[in-house]
Amino acid sequence: MSGEAVAIAHPNVALSKYWGKREGPGNFPAVPSLSVTLAGLQTRTRVRWGAPAHRVVLGGRELEPAESARARALLDYVRTSSGAFGHAEVESRNDFPTSSGLASSASGFAALALAAVRAAGLDWDASRVSDLARSASASAARSVFGGYVELPVGAQSARPLAPASQLPLVVLVCVTTEAPKAVGSTDGMRATMERSPYARAWLEEAPKIHAGLREALLAGDFARVGELAERSALAMHASAIAAGVTYWNGATIAALAAVRALRDAGTPAYATIDAGPHVKVLVRPADAARVRDTMKSVAGVSRVLEAHPGEGARLEGKP
Ligand code: PMV
User: Fold this and answer.
1) 1 pLDDT more than 50
2) Which of 188, 278, 285, 287 is at a distance of 20 to 30 A from 305, taking alpha carbons?
3) 55: CA distance to ligand 1 center in Å?
4) What is the pLDDT of residues 91-132, one digit of tens each?
5) How far apart are CA 110 and CA 74, in angstroms?
6) Whether residue 138 has its Cβ less than 6 Å from ligand 1
7) In angstroms, what is the span from residue 135 Cα to ligand 1's centroid?
8) Residue 110 in contact with residue 314, Cβ under 8 Å?
9) 135 lines ligand 1 (CB under 6 A)
10) How far apart are CA 199 and CA 185, in angstroms?
11) Beta bridge partners of 314
12) How many other CB atoms are there within 10 angstroms of residue 100's CB atom?
C-alpha cells in the first residue's frame, strides 16, 4: 500500500437534471438523471494517508472545517472501511471556476473518492467508488464514469449508459461570472422542495423527460436530445425560481436568447444550465466554431470554454 494516490476526474453536465433528494437518510436523488462527462475541464486530486488530522487544500487554499465537512465525511468512511492509519492530506485543483455551477463538486468528489480509496489500498470497483462519491454529491457519482452516464432514481451508484461515440457533440460553456454561487445545490433543492408551488410538477415531469432523452440518445437523435435537455433545465429552474432560488443573471438570459436565435436561423443549438448562471450550449462538432463565436459576443459572457464527451475518473498515469 503506497498510502498516496493522484486521481483525475472531469465534471459532467446533466442532460436530464437531478434536482431534489429523496426523503430519509443518505443522499439519494428523487429523480433519475443522465449526463455526459466532459473532457476539457478537469480536477486533479492527491490524497496521502497518515496525517495527524484531515487537511483539505483546494486551489492552494486550506478549507475551513465547515467548508470541507462533506470531504471529511467521505474520508472518514474510507478510513473506517480500510483501517487506514491516521487521517488524510488532500490537495485538489480545478482548471475551471470552482463552486459556481460548473460542476466542480462532481469532478471534485469523483476524484477525491477514487484517490482516497486507492491511496488507502482498497480495491473497490467503479460502482463502489461511484456510491462513495454519491454520498457526498449525487452528480459526482456520474463523473466516475465516462461518456453518457445514468443515475437512476434512488440508486446507490451511477452506471455507464453509452460510450462518448454514441452521440458526438460539443458543449460550449459560456462563463457569465467567476464568482462562487450564492446558494449551494443542496440548499437550492431543499428550498425548491419545501417552498416551490411547482415542486410536485417537477418531480412528475423529470422522469418523463429523462425517459425520452434516454431513448433519443440511444437512437443517436441529436436534435431530440438537445430539445429534451433544454426542457429539463428550464423545468428545473422554473421550479427553483418559484421558490425564490434564482441562479440566473442577465447574461444567462441573453445567452438563452442567443441560442434560441441560432435555432431560429437553422443551427441546431440547445441550452442547459446547472445550479449557477453559466449557459452550456450543446452543438454538433461541425457547428462548434461558429456557435462559439456567436456566444463570445453575448453581453456578459466573459469567455467560452469548449468541452466534449470524455473519460471517467482515473488514477494519474494509469489508463
Ligand atoms: O450533486 P450536486 O449536489 O452538486 O447537485 C447537482 C445539481 C445539478 O447540477 C443542477 C443537476 C445535475 O444533475 O447535475
Assistant:
1) no
2) 188
3) 25
4) 999 987 665 556 668 999 999 999 999 999 999 999 999 999
5) 11
6) yes
7) 13
8) no
9) no
10) 15
11) 8
12) 22
- What totals of helices (H) and strands (E) does the chain contain, helices first? 9, 14
Count of Cβ atoms closer than 10 Å to residue 24 Cβ: 6
For 196-206, how does the pLDDT look when each residue is reduced to its tens digit (9 = 90+)?
Answer: 999 999 999 99
pLDDT at 99: 53
Tell me how far the alpha carbon of residue 83 lies from the centroid of ligand 1, in angstroms.
Answer: 31
C-alpha cell of residue 318: 494509469
Alpha-helical segments (H) within 170-310: 185-195, 199-218, 222-241, 250-264, 288-296
- Between strands 55-58 and 61-62, the pairing is antiparallel
| pTM of the entire predicted model | 0.95
For a mutational test of ligand 1's pocket, the pick from 21, 105, 139, 273, i.e. the residue with the most ligand atoms closer than 8 A to its C-beta, is 139
Distance 193 CA to ligand 1 centre (A): 15
Compute the distance from residue 195 Cα to the ligand 1 centre, in Å.
19
Strands 55-58 and 87-94: parallel
Q: Which has more pLDDT, 60 or 101?
A: 60
Q: Which pLDDT value is given to residue 177?
A: 83
Residue 274 in contact with ligand 1 by CB distance below 6 A:
yes
Q: What's the CA gap between 314 and 319, in Å, rounded?
A: 7
